[in-house]
Specification:
mainly beta, 2 helices, elongated
Length: about 170
């Protein structure tokens, strides 16, 4: 009798673990998924469509919300093995500015390269600091093929621009 009770309890616990036999993988009707439509070429070969993680409505257009640096103190270009490196030094009103970058701006003149010195302001009030502490240096590498036809490089700030000619 004791053996029968133990076997019955084990059998019931095993069956209780299968929440529903209809949704179980032990059911032969669930071995294959539902049918789906596939695209075929004219020769009858299947066209493989890869799933995408992109939203159906598309991505929102990128808007750069960074501001221009307050003023520029120096712009230079140095020859490198891959082309050239444009370096710009800007002065900000207080400490804490970050995410600085020289952003290329499209122009109609193919012999001119225009760059905006953009950076992000701090979220909280920060100390003013000394002029040496408020100086931000940023650089951008330009490949030799992109630099080949360029004669002037202009870096823009909120208070004006600086031009380097070759």
């Amino acid at each position: 009798m004791r053996r029968q009770v133990i076997i019955s309890v084990l059998a019931l616990s095993l069956l209780g673990g299968c929440a529903r036999i209809g949704a179980s993988s032990f059911n032969p009707l669930n071995w294959f998924g539902p049918s789906e439509e596939v695209a075929l070429t004219e020769t009858g070969q299947r066209i493989r469509v890869l799933p995408t993680l992109a939203p159906k409505s598309g991505y929102a257009e990128f808007q750069d919300t960074r501001t221009l640096v307050t003023s520029l103190s120096d712009v230079s270009i140095v020859k490198s093995a891959s082309g050239g490196i444009v370096t710009a030094v800007g002065l900000v009103p207080s400490l804490g500015y970050y995410d600085a970058e020289l952003v290329r701006i499209e122009t109609d003149n193919p012999t001119e390269l225009v760059l905006d010195f953009r950076l992000r302001a701090p979220n909280t009030a920060t100390a003013i600091g000394t002029p040496a502490q408020r100086r931000i240096t940023v650089a951008r590498s330009i490949s030799a093929p992109n630099l080949a036809g360029i004669r002037t490089i202009t870096v823009r700030s909120a208070s004006g621009a600086r031009v380097v000619r070759r």
